[in-house]
Amino acid sequence: MEIWIWLLVALSIALCPIIYNVFFHPLRRFPGPRMAGATSWWKAYKEVFQQETLAQLLFDLHRKHGDIVRIGPNELHFGKPSAFHDIYHGTNRWDKDEGLYRTPGVRSGSFVFLKYKDAKERREVLQPMFSKRSIQNVEGLVWRNANRLATAVTKANAENCSIDLLYAFRSFTLDTIMYFTFGNCVDALDAQAFSDPLIVAMDASLRALPILKNFPLIRKVAYSLPPSLIMKTLPDAERLAPRIYRVRAIIEEQLQKVLDNPEKLDEALHQTIFHRMLDPNAHRSKVVPDSVKLHDEGLTLVFAGANTVADTLLMGHWNLLNQPDLVARLKAEVFSVWPDLEAQPNLKDLEALPLLTATIKESLRHIPSGVSLTRVVPPTGAVISGQTIPGGTTVGMAILHVHQSEEIFEDALSFKPERWLGEDAKQLEQWLVPFSRGPRMCFGVNLAWCELYIAFATLIRRFDMALDGTTAADMEWRECIAAYYPNRHLHAWCQPVEC
Ligand code: HEM
């Protein structure tokens, strides 16, 4: 047969799925960009080649196409805030979607378990460590790290340097979650300019996420080789090894220290997460997971717990530093429970402060959560936003579409803590969903709030801060599973207060 006939056959085979997706797929009746319905390459093109955040594009797409937009051959995004509660409802035991949750390259771990059953079993092991009472036991750890943060900021200021607040906050949250997980940490807070190799590596690895998410084959190859092998065999690995391996290698080192010497955990000042992970009685099966599974859990906990809290601190401080009046009122409020610098308050005192609490809520509303948290509709189908959705469809919504909804939040893009102090604040609470909702909602909530109270109070009480030329363009962010900031991000001068 002539070569052109073979080419024609190959082309027809390649076109078959596109023809099916456009003309015969059960989702063909849902509106959206034609290319998005035809092929998953549309999403890949937007996220990888145009480096767009889909959730931001989706504001326009929802305006054009309505409340439901088809953004992949088998995927719908919902834009009406009430749809969030339809999808992430407490009774929905829907699977997480492989397309998104395989991105980190691990198959087990609380965040990435696809099946509710597996997630529930692991949650039974870990959740007791995150209860309000357990978190009271790590309050000391959080204060210690907040004080280390303040010391490092003071030192940098004495050297006439402004502070890279993104890296400073990430160092604080990384040391905290890592110590809480493994009973040891990399001491990122001690690194010059908050640039510990792990902080730099984690930041760089975030930029690879769009490729890893959209190209499963590249992801499989990249993750199939053990990081230790890559680090050993690649010439000049320290400089050349993809940053993502570096992150894994460092976390593996922390875990190995624990596995080699489990009794070392007892030297920690409180119970750690790995105390529980390594206790056979904590598991339903009475068996401790193998070392790969332990590593996967350690990695996902560190990723889930570090950047999210740091992003909230970042967005809060960016907005505060643009509103000096608000900072003055906050300072006065924090001062009321912390008059003497040497006698720091406890978490309970901070939790009673209305303006500080409202500021944290408003910061959580402003976090860059642009990923559609995708779920798979069960075979029986479901009703979402008043529409019947066929079983097997991937559905989701980015939290941003709830938090920036003008239908719910008046002047939604403005940072106004007062909205959480007004008469209708109680009603608004149901629309503050930074930790998501339902059976897969975040179980790090209490730790997150503890870190946020203590870090906000520490910086507000101990420093007079001013922007070091940061502009709105510097604060641009992108996200396809975890946010990163392609520009300069937040830098501020931090002058320690005397008393
Ligand atoms: C402000 C801080 C935080 C925010 C905004 C946040 C947000 C979220 C969100 C939206 C989810 C649901 C993701 C999904 O549906 O796939 C989630 C899940 C999760 N978060 Fe957080 N989180 C924060 C802090 C933490 C902390 C401190 C930890 C501690 C390790 C943590 C651990 C987890 C875990 C393990 C999951 C997966 C739960 C599951 O799928 O069953 N998070 N988080």
Folded structure, characterized:
There is one protein chain. With 499 residues, the chain is α+β, with helices and mostly antiparallel strands. The protein has a single domain, classed as Cytochrome P450 (Cytochrome p450). It is built from 24 helices and ten strands. The strands form three sheets. It has a five-stranded mixed sheet. Strand 1 (68-72) and strand 2 (75-78) form a beta hairpin. The longest helix is centred in the middle third of the chain and has 31 residues, at 291-321. The protein is globular and about 85 Å long. The relative contact order is 0.15. The mean pLDDT is 93. The chain binds protoporphyrin IX containing FE. InterPro entries: Cyt_P450 (IPR001128), Cyt_P450_CS (IPR017972), Cyt_P450_E_grp-I (IPR002401), Cyt_P450_sf (IPR036396), Cytochrome_P450_monoxygenase (IPR050121). Its cofactor is heme. Heme binds at residue 442. Keywords: Heme, Iron, Membrane, Metal-binding, Monooxygenase, Oxidoreductase, Transmembrane, Transmembrane helix. It holds the Pfam family p450.
Please describe the structure with a list of short key phrases separated by commas or semicolons:
single chain; 3-stranded antiparallel beta sheet; 24 helices; Cytochrome p450; binds protoporphyrin IX containing FE; alpha+beta
